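[audit] Reproducing an earlier prediction to check determinism. Same input, same settings, fresh worker. If the tokens differ from the archived copy the diff job will pick it up downstream; this log only records the rerun itself.
[audit] input (378 residues):
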Amino acid sequence: MSMTKFHVTTFTNDLVITNNHRAYHWVRTYKSGTLKGDFNTAFQIFLILNHDVKIAYDILNYFLIIFFNWHVSPILIIGILRLIGLLCAMTYSEAEKSFISTISSLYEESEAKSLAWLSMNHVSKIDRAKYLSIKEDKMPEKQLLEFIAIQEELKTGRPLQYILGETEFYGLKFLVNQDVLIPRPETEELVDWVLITLRGIEKNPFDLKILDIGTGSGCIPVSIKKFFPEPEVYALDISSGALSTARQNALLNETELHFIHDDILNPLSEILLKKKFDFIISNPPYVTVSEKELMLSNIVDYEPHTALFVSDSDPLQFYNKIADFSLDSLQKEGCLFLEINENLGQQTCNLLADKGFKNIELRQDMRGKDRMIKASFK
């Protein structure tokens, strides 16, 4: 029968902190006198560290803030714990459970579990099958430190994809940062629709030219080029930071793209003005300013607003310009693909119809929301 190890550290002042051993851990404190009282009475901390290293972290953080008014980084706190010998080994399974418990107040259980696994996979470089076979093994210290650091950043609301610096889209790895939006699953559905259409056309694929407007991370054109490599693919964005990220992602996924730094609202590029494209694709800004208050703070606070929001007075501004551009730049049998605001599906279809587009098809995403449109002249 194994015995639970207790680490006892004695300080001064009348504060006792305990772990109640429930699934969602809490810390109970009793303190007499002022918060910054004299160090003249017994001060005991009971830590069940082999069960949950999070408790040690929380206590040290609390101690530094209350008694010294020091606000230090998670990495420094973890380093201090390591130096004084309070950072003990944890198994992979214990670390994952602690991670989920720590962020459970900010995320729903299913999302917390997903974030924990994505973080575990990132730091340990193992797949789910391997994890299940070693989950009761001790997690290497370097991995544990990185895992805890990710956990602490998640508590600030920063999206996991930005913390890790990468995400998966259409089965491919993409680098992401705060210059670009985090690719969404519904955009994968748009890419899938484009690829299915490409595979069904009769024209020689080597003669095709495709343009993605507002490329961001490059997830749309890179994915298309990766899985249908013959066409010439162009990617446009007004942001130099976004184009830099898209170039890295094209290189990462071994795809050759042509990049254009321009503003679709006032295009000046010679390529845009002279070339004809078979497919024009865009996922432009479409969230109205009034919808901002309905969005999660981790989106509003971290993702680039220029790629997200449009004014309430002209919510279809980008669609109007893209449609006008497409009238001049699409081949006669070409197709326009758009990702849209779920609340403006019919209005966007009407806009295209008024400009002379035919075969306008509005599709819903996996959640049953109006999300994408395909249109042509034929």
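[audit] rerun output stored. Observation attached for the diff report: The CA atoms of residues 8 and 46 lie 5 Å apart.
[audit] end
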